[in-house]
Write a structure and sequence with these properties.
The strands form five sheets. A nine-stranded mixed beta sheet has the order 6-7-5-2-10-1-11-19-20, sandwiched between helices. The chain folds into two domains: about 220 residues, Rossmann fold; about 100 residues, LpxI C-terminal catalytic domain (Cytidine Deaminase, domain 2, 3-Layer(aba) Sandwich), CATH 3.40.140. The chain contains ten helices and 20 strands. With about 350 residues, the chain is an alpha/beta fold.
């Protein structure tokens, strides 16, 4: 099985990295290369990607090479750094520090410098615009720690890139990657009435509780971050779900566990796996003691790609690295450079 076999059923895809220099751009180039002549591609990015020198580590990085007729959405400054012949299709009125996002068609093969917005709603608009322009696959190239753009509100599927740059310890990289896959792939709630209630009620509030009679009580809090005491105050023997909009953090879970054992009797619902910022140890403790977390919208993580080399002068055995990841996660793992 190849990556193209995995993405063929989706019209939009995000590629996100566990860290800088873990092979995300290499993965993108592999998909672009294998897709030549097979897709009408649309391409955009979170933040900036495609430049010759990494601005954080000052190391050389692979550039993004596209074929003729690819449609890209990128900032004006980035467009000036691209060597393609181009046709401007549309301006967007979406501004970034690198200028307005412009949508254009490549009239030649060439290297591009990508830069896009950092607001989810803008990215969703750009994705939809690219689809409306005839693209049958839109790829959103992620950026450092911007896993939120794997959100199902943005793209239909996600590829996660990991590599030696994350840690000198291969065991740590494997464990952190497996944990991230687990968070992104948490089971989603299937009760349609519960989903309807959450969609309606969470439009204007951040936290609420659903009871057995399907009544909903809201909390008057600006964020869920420090709302443990308020959440616990609403829990009783009739509580069924705690619904949280926004981030669901380590400290929130720990505080709730300290304050009441009643967390074991409810299901915590968050928007999707990108909103969870919980360590492997805390998640294990929470679920082991009877806690349950589900998501309102599931994320389809198609595969993990690996980069065994670090720009900091060390590397893993590529075969052992892939094998170790395959033993920990139940989705395909690819070393796109090593051909494993």
């Amino acid at each position: 099985m190849e990556i193209l076999d995995l993405i063929k059923d989706y019209d939009s895809l995000s590629i996100i990295g566990m860290n800088k220099n873990v092979g995300k751009t290499t993965t993108l180039n592999e998909i672009l290369n294998k897709s030549r002549g097979k897709y009408s591609l649309g391409l955009t990015s979170i933040g900036r990607d495609g430049e010759e020198l990494d601005r954080v580590t000052a190391t050389e990085k692979p550039r993004i090479y596209i074929e003729k007729n690819t449609i890209i959405a990128t900032a004006k400054e980035c467009l000036l750094n691209s060597d393609i012949t181009k046709e401007i299709l549309k301006t967007t009125n979406i501004n970034t520090p690198m200028g307005e996002i412009v949508i254009c068609r490549a009239l030649s093969d060439g290297y591009v410098d990508l830069g896009g917005p950092s607001v989810n709603s803008y990215m969703a608009d750009i994705k939809n615009e690219l689809l409306n322009l005839g693209c049958n696959l839109v790829i959103v190239d992620g950026a450092l720690n911007r896993k939120t753009f794997a959100s199902p509100t943005i793209t239909k599927a996600t590829i996660l890139s990991t590599g030696a740059a994350l840690s000198r310890s291969m065991l740590n990289v494997v464990e952190e990657t497996a944990h991230t896959v687990k968070l992104l792939s948490l089971p989603h709630e299937t009760d349609k009435e519960v989903l309807r209630i959450c969609e309606e009620e969470l439009k204007n509030v951040r936290v609420g509780v659903i009871y057995k009679d399907l009544s909903f009580k809201t909390l008057d809090v600006k964020t869920s971050l420090d709302a443990a005491k308020e959440i616990v105050s609403l829990l009783d023997e009739n509580s069924v779900y705690v619904c949280i909009k926004g981030v669901f953090t380590e400290s929130l879970i720990e505080d709730i566990m300290k304050l009441t054992p009643m967390y074991k009797n409810v299901i915590f619902l968050c928007e999707d796996g990108t909103k969870l910022f919980i360590s492997k140890e805390t998640l294990y403790k929470f679920t082991k003691q009877g806690g349950c977390i589900k998501v309102l919208k599931s994320i389809k993580v198609l595969c993990v790609t690996t980069n065994p080399k670090s720009p900091y002068g060390y590397e893993f055995d590529k075969v052992k690295f892939v094998k170790a990841l395959k033993e920990k996660i139940d989705i395909p793992v690819f070393d796109v450079v090593g051909g494993i």
